[in-house]
Amino acid sequence: MSLLEVDDIEVRYGAIRALKGVSFNVEEGEVVALLGANGAGKTTTQKTVSGMMTPALGQIRFDGERIDGVPAHTLIHRGICHVPEGRRVFPRMSVAENLDMGAFRFKRPDLHVLARVFEMFPRLKERETQLAGTLSGGEQQMLAIGRALMGKPRLLLLDEPSMGLAPLIVKQIFDIVREINASGVTVLIVEQNAAQALGLANRGYVLETGEVVLSGSGQELLADDRVRAAYLGEEIATS
Amino acid sequence: MNDFMNFVILGLTRGSMYALIALGYTLVYGVLQLINFAHSEVFMSGAFGSYLVIQSVVTDGSSPPWFAVVGIIVLGLGSGAITGAAVAWSLERVAYRPLRRRGAPKLAFLISAIGASFFLSQLAGKLFNRLNNNSFPTYFNLNKHVIDIGGVTVSLVQLIIIVSALLMMLFLDLLVSKTKLGRSIRGVAEDAPTAALMGIDIDKTISRTFVIGGALGGAAGFLFGTAFFFSNTMGFIPSVKAFAAAVLGGIGNIRGAMLGGLLLGMIEAIVPTFPWYKPGFIGTAWTDVVAFVVLVLVLIVRPSGILGERLGRAA
Ligand SMILES: Nc1ncnc2c1ncn2[C@@H]1O[C@H](COP(=O)(O)OP(=O)(O)OP(=O)(O)O)[C@@H](O)[C@H]1O
Ligand SMILES: [Mg+2]
């Protein structure tokens, strides 16, 4: 049994069908990447897994139990933590308060986890009392990841963690995702940065206008001509 | 100077009532980006709710010992708060939630609020009367000067209003900054979908926000009833001013509502103390006009209100 099984889900925004029967699965301990062009449905897929959206058709199972239609605020209690697209830190709360919010599902935040978050992101420790809205983009991304970790995820959903970040920070973020995964957290990551994501992922799925068109191990996808043409064009040219 | 100080006291008295009501507007605006125009009736219901309780425990003209008076006031605040909370909770359920579920436009909420407001005001008119002659039983000397320092006097009723309002505001401030409930309210106000991802139940939080705002408004209704005659239409004027106070302080900002309410009360009270003030020319009726002119001037300089800073994406 997979940790996460997404079975033929269809998701709509009004009349728009954003996902038209998407299926994939994530095994415990894996890193799985979702790739695809803008508007392919990657964010919608993650939102449906974390309970922000309900599929019109199809099922989602986590640990064997149906979770489609379960609202986000109850799903987090099963350990599905979502770092949403665009970070979405609480701008008028301090860094410390944002981290506290991540642990909202617990009576009080676990101080060991907090210490680990500060170890991973010393920058956050330095800026503990600063308002999150005044952090730089990279710092906000660190905070968003740290906040999700405070919820003690079993499955961590990351939506484009490298968006808009300098190459050095991107590398740092990917190193940390690797470290998080090594500590036993399963990761489902959405990325435009296909080379980085596939380098990290055990497996990947490629979405195109709401459908899975390709899947395979990270290495297979990296070697696939269609993937290279569509997502790695620049990198082939420069490397 | 003493005149001036006495007007400050008067301003604080009015202002603390405005502040309590303004908090209801600002709290709800925070979580829903919506002005709850039926909040005036929440305030009104607090006066009548506490009236029912007070007149059943104390008779007109009695003079209970001071600790009993304190007890009755606490009881009045409590029953006003409970009535206000219950009315605000029901308002959210009946007038707003169904619209929210259907993703109705903001104007629909406004119409719904006006309808609910008429209904509640007429209901109170039916249950009590439509005359502005309701008052609590007299059980203490309202006008007794409890503080008198060199001509600066504070009457008992002023002291009661100012102290209880300040205590409630302090309590709210702690609730919002220190408790999980407070954090859930702030989370929903800043970014509701993300708050849900943290495990916060948005509907429950909205409900509780109405309850808290309603309790403060209802308690203000009791305080108003302690000082003045009240009626089923008492809500309108103080609420318009409280709404203005909330905007003055920065709508959505809790400390802003407190500050805005107190300021507006002061401005209103202080205008008549100016040397150029002539009752014949700018009489008391014009005080409101002056107060609102000041308000508009402040908003021209700071369009988002005194404490209404906008940060990043939160705008
Ligand atoms: N709130 C919405 N209302 C209507 N349509 C939406 C909404 N959100 C997304 N869509 C549509 O659903 C489709 C999938 O969007 P989604 O955000 O999942 O894409 P994505 O793969 O994450 O793209 P990107 O790489 O640009 O983030 C798009 O066609 C988009 O226009
Ligand atoms: Mg996206």
Task: Provide tags for this entry.
heterodimer; A: 239 residues; alpha/beta; six-stranded mixed sheet; four-stranded antiparallel sheet; 11 helices; disordered C terminus; B: 315 residues; mainly alpha; 10 helices; 2 strands; 70% helix; 3% strand; binds adenosine-5'-triphosphate; binds magnesium ion
Describe the structure.
The complex is a heterodimer of chains A (239) and B (315). With 239 residues, chain A is an alpha/beta fold. Chain A is 38% helix and 26% strand. Chain A has eleven helices and ten strands. The C terminus of chain A is likely disordered. In chain B, strands 1-2 form a two-stranded antiparallel ribbon. In chain B, β1 and β2 form a beta hairpin. In chain B, α2 runs parallel beside α4, α5 crosses α6 and α6 runs antiparallel to α7. The longest helix of chain B has 36 residues. The C terminus of chain B is likely disordered. The interface between A and B is medium-sized, with 28 and 21 residues. The structure holds adenosine-5'-triphosphate and magnesium ion (MG). The site of magnesium ion has 4 residues of chain A, from α1.
